[in-house]
Amino acid sequence: MINGNIDGIKKTILDTLENLIDYRIPKDKILDEFVVYTLLEVTDAINKEVLIVIDNSNTVVAVGVGDHKAATFPDISKRIKKRGLNGLMSFHTHPNGNPKLSSADMSSLLDIKFNLIGAIGKNSIKEPLINLGIINNDEGNLVVNEYGPFSINKLNQFHYSELVESVDSFLRSKIHVDTLEEEKAILVGVNTKSESILDIENSMEELRELTYTAGATPIDKLVQNKERIDNNFYIGKGKLEELRIMIQNNSCNLVICNDELTSIQLKVMETYLNVKIIDRTSLILDIFAKHAKTSEGKLQVELAQLKYRLPRLLGLGKVLSRTGGGIGTRGPGEKKLETDRRTIYKEIHILENKIKSMKNVRQQQKSRRIKNHIPVVSLVGYTNAGKSTLFNLLTASNVLSENKLFATLDATTRKFKNLDRELLLSDTVGFIDKLPHDLIKSFESTLEGLVDSDMLLHVIDSSNKNFLKQIQLVEEVLHSLKCSDKKIIYVFNKIDKMCDDFDSQASTIRGIKSMISAKQEIGVQELSKLIHKEIFGETIIREIKVPYFDTKYISSLHDLGIVLEEKYEEDGIIIKIQYTSEVEYLVQRYIQ
Ligand SMILES: Nc1nc2c(ncn2[C@@H]2O[C@H](COP(=O)(O)OP(=O)(O)OP(=O)(O)O)[C@@H](O)[C@H]2O)c(=O)[nH]1
Ligand SMILES: [Mg+2]
């Protein structure tokens, strides 16, 4: 795939570029003639910058048209490391022929942390000339040193590895990395005493967790008590001034608001504070963008992001586009987020169609499953409750489980044996307070699996003192997904570190309960039995006597897998069977 805007470029040219992907440059060279001349030839033809990215095995891993912005490089952004250089080299052409690095080149080198960056131009007799940029540690400050211009031969004799290694080890020392890329945030909330489930203190605490999960550092917080959220100033004009001073005193570059903001609120705050403003929704979307793994999950997040952006294009202002990175700018797969209204409408339409066709595929899988009669059990619960940990334990698989919010975004379903009976277990996205409505809608197609579940395991984090409120919220979401009448087991997880007051709080929950620690593997056997009992009914053990002539019946008991013992007597076989009420009608025949 060629990155960037390729509209209007002839197919033959695109093919030439495409050809470069996976091309391996000889080990002892930085660049070879084939690559350089191909890039120059294409540049001449289209009069635009053309660029390639080369990995540490000297293979061309990406090709693009246009500038270097990380966001246009789906495959590259994944490789950007939190520390150190990313092990990649990038070269691009300058259509004007001058190989001198531009300030944009230098800033993308610093942003993306390539091992080195090179600009390819030409001299007066059309021979290639190449300049290199390498990050240098100048007494703690990162600067770009420029080398060249080189001919291809001279370039390949240039010893750069020591320069690169020295800056790489410097970058790995944490303090400097932090000052380079840290997003320092002030968290802002309004205490409206409204019907929100979590009180303001817990809600702000959750916002702090979300901020960490998104990769920024919460520095301080500011809460305004107010009857209603201010339509223009969110926290009110006076408080905004207080916030401005707080930002200055702490050298922060980000404000994260605890509610979803309107376009006007975003714009007013940004204009007034001149830092990036992120609201709770876009923070969650950002985390979702980072965590979506399956193609359907990615499409759903992208759709939700576009729907979020559409009414806010005015508000998502200068600072966001100026910063060109960090929270609020990431798309799933690091696709550049659109800013043009018409394109967004088009994209939304395309995405909705794609998701619909995936839904059809799932529908077919579902009907196959129904034919096979395998019961489906789904894990639901607040984010971080331990659903994936339990999923892994029950199915002995390895789904990402992390002490981060929204580690799981895509519903994962696995077949597993629960006490000798096959079941399908689904792990799902965690819920959270003020989960944006559009987001639930976007995830409906993944979550609609819940409606088809035979039973839900509502996993609860017993170590969280707010677990009752979390239960309440999960039940509200289940209700909105039309799942509240499902059979539910309340699985109180993390009993190895249950919060104070757990017993009295948990006793207020009515229903089938199970106490476990998925991490310490406590109570899991009992849970398996409970699942079995709730799905298949109580297990009954009986002895029946079947006459010898009814061999067909005997073999059908074996087929059901319920025979424990057989004793042969004169007038028949005494068979000890273990069965659940769902097959009662089949074993009725010889029960006295
Ligand atoms: N102490 C303790 N920690 C647990 C237990 N079960 C899970 N955890 C931890 O809780 C954190 C969250 O676990 P996950 O399984 O990722 O939670 P989840 O519900 O899947 O979270 P999302 O996918 O984000 O919704 C991880 O750090 C787990 O190790 C437990 O029984 N006891
Ligand atoms: Mg999970």
Task: Please give a structural write-up.
With 592 residues, the protein is α/β, with parallel strands linked by helices. The protein has four domains: 2-180, no CATH class; 183-359, 3-Layer(aba) Sandwich (Rossmann fold), CATH 3.40.50.11060; 374-535, P-loop containing nucleotide triphosphate hydrolases (Rossmann fold); 538-590, Alpha-Beta Plaits (2-Layer Sandwich). The protein has 22 helices and 20 strands. The strands form four sheets. Strands 1-3-2-4-5-6-7 form a seven-stranded mixed beta sheet. The chain has a six-stranded mixed beta sheet with strand order 13-14-12-15-16-17, sandwiched between helices. The chain is globular. It binds guanosine-5'-triphosphate and magnesium ion (MG). Guanosine-5'-triphosphate binds at residues 381, 383-389, 401-403, 405-408, 430, 493-494, 496-497, 517-520. One of its GO terms (molecular function) is metal ion binding.
